[in-house]
Amino acid sequence: MAVSPVVTHEATSNVKVTAAKAKSLAVRTNSFPHKTEAPPEKKQGGQELAERLNHETKEKYVKDKKLGEGTYAIVYLGHLKADPLSKVAIKKIKVNTEYRDGLSMDAIREVKYLQELSHPNIIALHAVFSSKNQNLNLVLEFLPLGDLEMLIKDSEGIRYGTAEVKAWMGMLGRAVWFCHENFVLHRDIKPNNLFIAADGEVKLADFGLARSFSDPYRPMTYQVITRWYRPPELLYGARFYSGAVDVWSMGTVFAELILRVPFLAGNTDIHQLELICQAVGTPTEEIWPGVSKLEGYVGYEKASIVPVRGKDFYLARFGTAGPVGVDLLMSMLALDPRKRSTARQMLEHRWWTSDPRPTAKVDLPRKGGGLEKMGDDLKRRGGEVEDGRGNKVARKLNFGATK
Amino acid sequence: MAILTEDDLYRTSTQYRLWSFTRESLSSLRCTTNESAADGVRAALYGQKATEQSSKQDSNVSPTPEVDYLSVDEEQKLVGYYCIQTMKFADFCDFPTNVKATAVQYLKRFYLSNSPMTYHPKEMMPSALFLATKTENHYTSLESFVSMLPKATAEDVVAPEFLLTQGLRFTFDVRHPHRGLEGGFMDLLALATGKGQSNPKTGASPAQLQQHMIDLEPVTDRGKKMSRSAEEVVRRIQNAHSKAKELLKTSALLTDAYFLYTPSQIWLSSLFFADEPLARFYIDSKFPTQSPLKSTLLTALQTCATLLRSSASADPEDSEVKELKRIDKKLYKCRNPEKIDLVGINKAQKREGHEDGLDEKVIKKRKMEREKLEKEAEDIFGPALGVKDGK
Ligand SMILES: Nc1ncnc2c1ncn2[C@@H]1O[C@H](COP(=O)(O)OP(=O)(O)O)[C@@H](O)[C@H]1O
């Protein structure tokens, strides 16, 4: 399985039937789980096969201490019963609390997409089981070294340069490319959703807002992505959008890695747009044909229009990335989503092959001391101070609007 | 390293990993499920009889009569009927095709490891459809969903959800063949209008490919070569497309196609069914040279097309309805009595769950209260019957 389009320089073909496909069309696997899992003891007081499989999964793991608590889940450290040295994170989703409509959309999305996406830069979902109180438990790979936000913020303790940024951005880019290749939009890319594994690998997590985008004619909600990382088309209320939204978020993460403070930290959606105009340029019909037709587009007075920022402007702020790096950053922050680079184009950019080479993941700076040493302030997530977990409330209220 | 093609991706999907079978493994799984469900019913009925007997203290009660259980085939018919009902209801609610198709697959997947003798499809159906609205991003509030149901409460919809997700083994993604068909349709149209790509192997130019299509034998009059215009070919493709599309919306969902074939195989088979010469032309344009792979593919497409043809019609005939009624009547006698009240089971499980989280003190207190109540009960009604008999 390819983890990046750049490993081979052959273009991935979009042809519907390829040689590789013919092979898998013709060859079917024989390893069907059900067949081999035929029950040895049939009688179990009417326990159905599904119930038994669930029970078996549940019995494989042991919950240890609590690691943390999120908005809709409690996360525990756990291990495989058969291997006490193994470590997993068990995320117990509070299913039956305040949400009356059964399984919540966050939980469904997270489970649905993580079940399908297996990639070194996407958090691995090892198993799912329900405990008898009907809570859903996600057995995730244990990622002990915090998230990218902690590293960015710890400007006293952690030093890094372009080579490290390149390594992190490369891993993020491959994760997002893989999502898009699978027709999945993540829609919440930000530093604190980028966890770090024990070996330094970056792992994209939190698929609670993800969705597939296979049907281009179906409108989608624009109330997604934490504001600081939200692209202009969503701020203008676009209902038809693409992988370009995630690329914008990656661009802002890239900028934040260099600046070591959030690049565009708006207090309100209006303020966010103002910041974008200042830092990137004012979206107008000339540079972004069709933008004025978006529902939330606000006209700009001639005098206030900021021309699209040129390379020099970026070099002044992001000079450490070098001219090639700045070129990549600019392509990710194109205002018109159609002109923005795709995840694939981003990975094909020559920045990755130009000097300096990306730092090997084992040599990447990391939080020392692991979990215990982290202060509470470091655990707090960006953007959380004023509006909770992104626009958590807004996103809940807006599910009805996704139709 | 391999290039990432659509089929490499398919191999990592849960549909491939957990929900793909051979005919043999599929039928053996269904047998196992049927047998263990029957065992469950037997155990539950026996348990019931035993308590009835002890309470009636009737000394000469005959042993539990052997119950006539549903056969795998009967289970299948019943589930199939409720799949059709699900589709009708989804249409009534104006849900998009993917919601409808996913809901039907959820039911089919659920009943691979569960029997209608344990959970009646009538009760699982609304839950499956509601879950599909959520997983397919067509979220409708429970309230408005319930308002569209003839006679069900919000609890009836949500109570089986937990069982359903467990039966689905917590995999919600269903890969449908519809998108593939649309892609193939576009490809064919491009070829028919001379805008296709020239064939890399045979070197046939777009114009030659177009002519080739014009010369294709017609669908009905086999063997008779007719020369037609490019416009007629386009119309032919459109006809085949709508016929294939219809098939994907009905028999592809109702048969075991999703369990046995990949989405690409299914849509190619539907094209095969709709217009075989056109399908063969398309496949030849993709695999110009003979190979074992190609012949295996063609065989798979033929068996899949046969399967698609075999599907029960969406409107059952009188005889089928009669049969369904018979099965449902039979089911009435062999249902697992312990699993009928799904709302009640759901509540009980949640209660149990809450006790998980209670601290020791509360549990202890409750235990004492319960013991006290039991004591009082004993005082009032005398010792429990079992105790007396047990001596
Ligand atoms: N895979 C993991 N490995 C280690 N710790 C984790 C993992 N997932 C989550 N955590 C910890 O649990 C906390 C809560 O996680 P989560 O529910 O995902 O948070 P949120 O709802 O804020 O996104 C996190 O802040 C983190 O400290």
Give the SSE map:
The complex is a heterodimer of chains A (403) and B (391).
Chain A: H1 19-26, H2 33-36, H3 49-60, E1 61-69, E2 73-80, E3 83-93, H4 105-116, E4 125-130, E5 136-141, H5 148-153, H6 162-181, E6 184-185, E7 194-196, E8 202-204, E9 211-212, H7 232-235, H8 244-259, H9 269-279, H10 311-318, H11 322-332, H12 343-347, H13 370-373, H14 376-379, H15 384-387, H16 392-397
Helix pairs in contact in A: 6-8, 8-11, 10-11
Chain B: H1 6-12, H2 14-17, H3 23-56, H4 72-92, H5 97-113, H6 121-135, H7 142-148, H8 154-158, H9 161-167, H10 178-192, H11 206-214, H12 230-249, H13 251-254, H14 257-260, H15 263-274, H16 276-286, H17 292-309, H18 318-334, H19 342-357, H20 360-381, H21 385-390
Region (Disordered) (chain A): 29-48, 357-391
InterPro entries (chain A): CDK, CDK7, Kinase-like_dom_sf, Prot_kinase_dom, Protein_kinase_ATP_BS, Ser/Thr_kinase_AS
Catalytic activity (chain A): L-seryl-[protein] + ATP = O-phospho-L-seryl-[protein] + ADP + H(+); L-threonyl-[protein] + ATP = O-phospho-L-threonyl-[protein] + ADP + H(+)
User: Can you identify the CATH superfamily of the largest domain in chain A?
Assistant: Transferase(Phosphotransferase) domain 1
Please report which band the strand proportion of chain B falls in: under 5%, 5-15%, 15-25%, 25-35%, 35-45% or over 45%.
Answer: under 5%
CATH superfamily of the largest domain in chain B: Cyclin-like
What does the average pLDDT of chain A come to?
82
* Count of folded domains of chain B: 3
Rg value of chain A? 22 Å
Between the first and last Cα atoms of chain A, what is the distance in angstroms? 35 Å
Based on CA inertia axes, which overall geometry of chain A fits?
A: globular
Count of helical stretches of chain A: 16
Give the overall average pLDDT of chain B: 80
pLDDT below 50 for ≥5 consecutive residues: which ranges of chain A? 7-46, 369-403
Number of strands of chain A: 9
Percent helix of chain B = 55-70%
State the low-pLDDT regions of chain B, or none: 354-363, 372-391
- What structural class do the secondary elements of chain B suggest? mainly alpha
Rg from alpha-carbon coordinates of chain B: 28 Å
